[in-house]
Amino acid sequence: MENGMDRHGKQGTHKNPSAEQHDGIPYFTSMEDALSSLFGDGVEIAQTRRIAGGDSNEAYGLTLTDGTDLFMKANTKGNAPLFAAEAVGLSAIARTGTIGTPRILCSGMDGKGTGYSFLLMEWIAGERRIPDYWETFARQLAAMHGADASDLVAGGKYGFVCDNYIGRGRQINTAKDGWIAFFRDCRLEPQFRKASGYFDREGRRKVAKLLDRLGDILVEPKSPSLLHGDLWSGNVVTGKDGRAWLIDPAVSVGHAEADIAMTELFGGFPQAFYDVYRKAAPMQEGYAGRRDCYNLYHLLNHLNIFGKTYLGAVERILWGYVR
């Protein structure tokens, strides 16, 4: 699937194609320069509206004086790396040609006042879903999981070309040859280390035991898959084409069932999605017994970001796997 402004809105004039590049996308030192370069001299922001949503960034809908609608994320200057990582992740998904993602127009750092970092993207939001929305999404996600991801990891099969973020949490993507080793060393272990203060001696014993016996719980996939990495309902939006589009990724190459497990953590998707996905990409036997182990990672991340509210859920899963 081709992806970009030429499908859904005005193509930028690219007055200044020699703009500095950060991670392959144009980078500007002011919002004024960004808009002038992308849309032409004199184009300014005519309307700004706050959009509710994520916990990590401020989000805005922008309408320009030429009528173009854009989506902007903003954060402090120190959090600019979050935007660079997001751009790389969206590009990786887009390259599979399987499912819609918003096109990144540019990133930058506006120096006016206290200053802020920003990420500009095309506006993709639509209002009406196609009749088989969830079934189509399931087939597209299965296709993404089945796409060749070998060029996204250097020196191993699992990981990613760079570290990134899941929410505000740093996500380690060091390459590994085995999925179980990757999930232990780059997912669970770093989160447990950050959360060590929440566990007493017995809890720490159980953590060590779980990590030691992870090979008895998880299985190696038949082939590596590009993962969205943070696949809950808030990161699936309806595009102008009426189909599901993916936003806010925390990508890596891993086991596809880790993405499916995440979809079930906070309420789940309609059953039609799971029925079609399983036909398009049959699950390995025993998935139900592994699902909570995958979601332990996300609950630990929430515990480390948001605090003790998530401790009970973490302990229930840990206690369920380790006696």
3D structure, described in words:
The strands form 4 sheets. A 7-stranded mixed beta sheet has the order 1-2-6-7-5-4-3. Strands 8-9 form a two-stranded antiparallel sheet. Helices cover 37% and strands 18% of the residues. Helix 5 runs parallel beside helix 9 and helix 9 packs antiparallel against helix 10. The relative contact order is 0.13. The protein has 323 residues and is α+β, with helices and mostly antiparallel strands. A hairpin with a 7-residue loop joins strand 3 and strand 4. The protein is globular and about 65 Å long. The chain has 10 helices and 13 strands. The longest helix has 20 residues.
Outline the secondary-structure elements.
Blueprint: H1 5-8, E1 21-22, E2 25-28, H2 31-39, E3 45-50, E4 58-64, E5 69-75, H3 80-95, E6 104-110, E7 116-122, H4 133-146, E8 164-166, E9 169-171, H5 179-194, H6 201-212, E10 225-227, E11 236-238, E12 244-246, E13 252-254, H7 256-263, H8 271-280, H9 287-306, H10 311-321
Parallel strand pairs: 2-6
Antiparallel strand pairs: 1-2, 3-4, 4-5, 5-7, 6-7, 8-9, 10-13, 11-12
Helix pairs in contact: 4-8, 5-9, 6-10, 7-9, 9-10
